[in-house]
């Protein structure tokens, strides 16, 4: 007779699934070499050896770095972008429409009972582009967009128009358009044309006299059809700027408040933690501002705090430097950067940001453009310009922790049928753990059904399955510690196994001497290892199956 080892292996796995850190990675138990075993025998199920990158949270694998290549000391680095402002946000170009209404007199026409002559005239209009936030446009090179012109008249004459835009330059010359409006026996007479702005350079200063303006010069020729001119006819021009996208622009872009933007960094190492005290003794928070706008910007930071998602507890930071001046780059294509770094030296309670198992570091930022107001130096912006603020939280893995609790849930499927478990009188699982990490873990396992109703616990109270390794005065582990733990599974619980659908694992832990010698500092290095041997002894009732 052979008994499947799958169910018992899962039970064993449950005991060690919470290791070292509350958000630890579940080590890859596929590394353990499994064997077949017989009843009435104690046999090894396998052996495994794990390093730092196996044990720490899988979700943090990209955040774990070696900060000191000389000694292999480790840190977790979390980063995020708390502000990102695009060129289109700083210089928004919205669709705009402006209409101009002319009288026959503007076209040099006088009232007459029958008009058979030809009269030419010239007039000008200004397209004044409204800009928000005190923006004053000087020049702009367009990537795309259009200036759409619509004409309408109730004059019963033929009209030709030559329109010139002296401030829109394409191919080195001003943009021109010609329009013909032929009277067809009824009014109004309509016509339209469009200027493709792609590749066009615009001067919004009207020759250096103002801002936000494009001039439109119209030469008209009216050819009589013999119809009367009453003097009350209408002639209208509609100018529509649509879908404008710029390559770059210059001007003065105002003293804009780019707004207070809030964000947070998820500190993933605490994903499963529910309580406890943590202290990282040498954390740093670096805020870096990158600016490729040709605009000086003042930056302010506020509301830096850690948030415990489980309890809602907020721990504000205090004393941190909260302002930063970011200069303008000298020319297009360049960028500038500036940063501030918060440490325990300049931020009073920075080391507490990971106390009480916070899971987020949140912050707000505000930016003001042109803090000194308008100067002789023009602002500039490119379509690719950005203003960003990056936050980088570095947690060197040094400090202390105690009383931290964590839990996790894993699926469980014994497989087989009740007759399989009826063959077992009792089973004992042995963990032989050699721990090179300065952390101890006590664990308790509860087996529940599909509705998460508890069926039985593996141990009545949490049992220590991992003993903390000792450390020297520098917080470095001096030697590994071996711990053998035997867990008995009574026959009375075996008939529940086929009902079990989930295993809930609860663990509590502490760093070396954290409770007996408070605030003992421990440090983590890339050479730390955790290994264990897993064995099972089963007493099966063979006689009843003879």
Describe the protein's architecture and organization.
About 5% of the residues lie in helices and about 50% in strands. The protein is mainly beta and about 550 residues long. It folds into three domains: about 5-75 and about 400-545, no CATH class; about 75-85 and about 255-400, Sandwich (Jelly Rolls); about 90-250, Jelly Rolls (Sandwich), CATH 2.60.120. Strands 4, 5, 6, 7, 8, 9, 10, 11, 12 and 21 form a ten-stranded antiparallel sheet that branches. Strands 14, 23, 25, 26, 27, 29 and 30 form a seven-stranded antiparallel sheet that branches. Strands 2-3-22-15-19 form a five-stranded antiparallel sheet. Strand 2 (about 65-70) and strand 3 (about 75-85) form a beta hairpin. The longest helix has 11 residues, at about 5-15. It is elongated. The chain starts with 5 loop residues before the first helix and ends in a 6-residue tail after the last strand. Mean pLDDT is about 80; it is low at about 1-40.
Radius of gyration: 38 Å
Helical stretch tally: 5
Shape: elongated
What is the CA–CA distance across the termini? Answer: 10 Å
The average pLDDT value, as a whole number, equals 82
Total tally of structural domains: 3
Which secondary-structure class do the elements indicate? mainly beta
Q: Report low-confidence residues grouped into runs of 5 or more.
A: 1-41
The main pleated sheet reads as: 10 strands, antiparallel
> Roughly what fraction of the amino acids lie in strands?
over 45%
Helix content: under 10%
Number of strands: 31
